[in-house]
Amino acid sequence: MSANSIIPAFPRMLEDESIYIMREVAAQFERPALLFSGGKDSITLVRLAQKAFWPGKIPFPLLHVDTGHNFPETIEFRDWLVRETGAELIVRYVQDSIDAGKVKEETGKYASRNVLQTVTLLDAIEEFKFDACIGGARRDEEKARAKERIFSVRDDFGQWDPKKQRPELFEMLNGKINIGENVRVFPISNWTELDVWTYIKEENMAIPSIYYTHKRQVIERDGMIWPYSDFLNTSEDEVPFEEIVRFRTVGDMTCTAAVASTANEIDDIIREILSAKISERGARMDDKRSEAAMEQRKKEGYF
Amino acid sequence: MDIVRIATAGSVDDGKSTLIGRLLYETNSITADKLEAIERASKRRGVDYTDLSLLTDGLIAEREQGITIDVAHIYFSTPTRKYIIADTPGHFEYTRNMITGASNAQVAIILIDARNGIVEQTHRHFYITQLLRIPYVVVCVNKMDLVNYAEEPFNQIRQQFEELFEKANYKEQSLQFIPASSLYGDNISTRSSQLDWYDGPSLLEFMEGIDWHASQNQLPARFPVQYVIRPKSDQWHDFRGFAGKLSSGTLSKGDTVVALPSLQESVIEDIFKFEESLNQAESGDSVVITLKDEIDISRGDMIVKKSEQPAALKEISAQVCWLDHTPLKAGKTYLLQHGSNRVKAKITNLYASINVLDYKTIDDVQEIGLNEIGYISLKTAKPVNADTYAANKRNGSFILIDEGSNSTVGVGFIG
């Protein structure tokens, strides 16, 4: 694709579907929460929730499981968004789970807190008795996610059983659960990465600055560009250098790779995606651990 | 930009995965790293071709056993349309999965191996497209390369299929026969010179051309209320809006409406899509409606035009497809979910089950088991404001929920 390629329109039917799902959550559950990471997908969820309940406020809190390894720009953005929307924010820290001895910090070059956050999340679900957690997962991201339902029932331990999924017919969603169970809800299941970006464009939404081009200290590892930070365990030959980069997906600083890019406008970002040779999750170390990495984490309660 | 939902069904042997892989590949919808991952995995498995089924078979158990368990959703797009494929397996719990995947589809692709012609599975596929009343069916006669791209086998299959269609109920269904080779990309996105005797569209050309929106808007308006919005803020002190997704028809400002089941009448004051006020909501729009009078409406109620009211049914006869391991039995009580409304329902009678291979009904059945289709009647605790499925899909279908397990155990099509 050339730099002049035409930017497709956002399919508006997707928004209608997602708003419908948001309203089903508010109506069918007593204590829902929206899992907020500060990435573009969860920012999109907040926008959809805002629209679904306007002129009322979003009738459920945002829950951020803070790994302590966030990009500072993400936290700054989160706090701004909460002020802007008047939504309630709950933060729970992975550090607290580590201090309480519930999880052990990983060691070595690829240490990250990505897996650890599942425990903090499950604890938060128990603490607040959340019966539904809204997440920004999309079916186009990964093979195991392609088979996930919109209302995905989890057992007492937050586990997903792919063989026991409820059939979802027409637009009817069944959120009835037994005591102890809870549901993960994925309102943007049917969106692709490109849909999220064209929506951000058409809605004129603000996103954290790290999605746009900037100068950053990075290291090179396994042919990818890693953001250099205190959280990253580096070896001696991994010498930080400055590079002009942006992030295509935003997770922790320890597991999100950057791409060399000068895109400083949303149209540039969309054109980059249109011509990309590598899929979005190709920049996520957490998925590369094994062929079935995502399914394994989901079974254990990851969202 | 429109969204087209496609249901594909069949086994790997029919070349279904290759067909999907082709569509993704030729519309530039698969990235290099995904393709490489599949190539790597194919080699590890010791096959000497790129096994595109690995693209859709996502679960560990599926890959270990070489089977597909569940419905996978696959996405591709062209400059004008976004396509969502619900890909369902050929063997394992087939009926349940295909009905689940295809319930929202506008197009079903039935794959037939040009060498084998119509097989048992074809009958099942076609029956489900009829039951669900999927408006467009593509009969894709695949592997034409293995019959030397000859016209004769294609014509034979076409003729057999048309005979099948003669016996079917839903005659408005549009059938399109396309000869193709997904392995070589003949007639998938572009027309093939190998098949110059065929003068119809390629598969993608056909799907780019279909249109069904207009027909949804022409149906009577059905607005199931999902949620009542009452901000109680200073700015919106008296605001009382009814949020929902218009399941069919159109609603306009000034329309005289009634709320069901209360039958109270009012006039539409405003229609909001977020901050924007609309003159008219169309089928599929998620909106908030305000009324001129303060009448009692809550979740599960339905707003309809006064002039186009659905029946208030307490006794329903329906065709059901059973989705659960525990069979349906007469006398049992379930929760019936119809749109946003849930009521208790008791199965009063179980008439027959259907053999999908020859459409013969089997009378005198005691139960309807997993993957079986049957005729039942049931009685509801409160009236359900429904149409027949033939008249209005969204307002003519329901699911049954088991009150013990809370699972969705059946789907019904009101007759």
TrEMBL record, chain A:
Catalytic activity, EC: 2.7.7.4
Plastid in keyword set: no
Highest taxon above the source species: Bacteria
InterPro entries hit by this protein: PAPS_reduct_dom, Rossmann-like_a/b/a_fold, SO4_adenylTrfase_ssu, Sulfate_adenylyltrnsfr_sub2
GO molecular function: sulfate adenylyltransferase (ATP) activity
SUPFAM superfamilies assigned: Adenine nucleotide alpha hydrolases-like
Record's keyword terms, sorted: ATP-binding, Nucleotide-binding, Nucleotidyltransferase, Transferase
Protein's name in the database: Sulfate adenylyltransferase subunit 2
Source organism: Flavihumibacter fluminis
Every Phosphoadenosine phosphosulphate reductase domain range: 32-257
Family: Belongs to the PAPS reductase family. CysD subfamily.
